Amino acid sequence: MPDCKRISSRDNAFFKSLLKLAGSARERREAGQTLLDGPHLLRAWLDSGRQAAHLLLNPSALDDAEIAQLRAACPDTPCTVFDDALFKQLSELKTPNGLLALIDIPQPDPTRANDFVLLLEDIQDPGNLGSILRSAAAAGCDAVYMSQGCADAWSPRVLRAAMGGHFILAINESCDLLDIASRFDGRLFASSLQAETTLYACDLHGKIAFAIGNEGAGLSEELQAQAQQRFIIPMPGKVESLNAAAAAAVCLFEAVRQRN
């Protein structure tokens, strides 16, 4: 393993660039990079066949056995140790686990065949978005298309909530969902409280896409109009609706049940 450089000054240029990445979606987009927080996310990233651009540690991480194994799996990746005060500024965790990985954000392959797709419209809560991506990856989705109004998919909070789901899916941000829907050559399903057909009566075999709407406003009428099938999720309990992440999980795994 390469020796780790040590940084203790907040005026260090590399530290300043990392601090911007940690806190700014614009910086992440412009740099094409983001930070993975913790051993679990780095292991998932490596398991996807990719390598980190840089490993960032705090001093105690040098004595951690799990982190040592991950460092050994990245023999050519440069490593930097930051003083605890600096490292805490880079991690959003109240108790940092000692490891961050700088990675290049993967770009989706435009030639990839997408037979099981999610369209997400203005999902603004990072926790909800991360949970949806985690469910989509677990359900075997190929791709996720997100409108410009969605939270930044590659923010630290969304990455932690998705638990590695990002690295399995083709993630497409800032999309024109009406254009995506019009060009999709399968069937688009949209949830609607006015629908008469239930989710469980829908045929979810073949090439399909689900459209999931904003936590408060739901799915726009324009996108609903593009759907070949509107449905309602039966809710015998006395609540008005499910949140976006729960609704997406119900839809995704009903498709899994039918397709398997």
Q: In percent, how helical is the residue content?
A: 25-40%
Shape: elongated
Number of distinct beta strands: 11
**In percent, how much strand structure appears in the residues?**
15-25%
Biggest β-sheet strands, sense, barrel: 6 strands, parallel
Question: What is the mean predicted local confidence, pLDDT?
Answer: 95
Descriptive account of the structure:
It is a single chain. By secondary structure, this protein is of the alpha/beta class. The chain has two domains: 5-104, 60s Ribosomal Protein L30, Chain: A; 116-259, SPOUT methyltransferase, trefoil knot domain (Alpha/beta knot, 3-Layer(aba) Sandwich), CATH 3.40.1280. It is 35% helix and 20% strand. Helix 7 links the parallel strand 7 and strand 8. Helix 1 crosses helix 2 and helix 6 (126-139) runs parallel beside helix 10 (244-259). It is elongated and about 60 Å long. The model has no long low-confidence stretch (mean pLDDT 95).
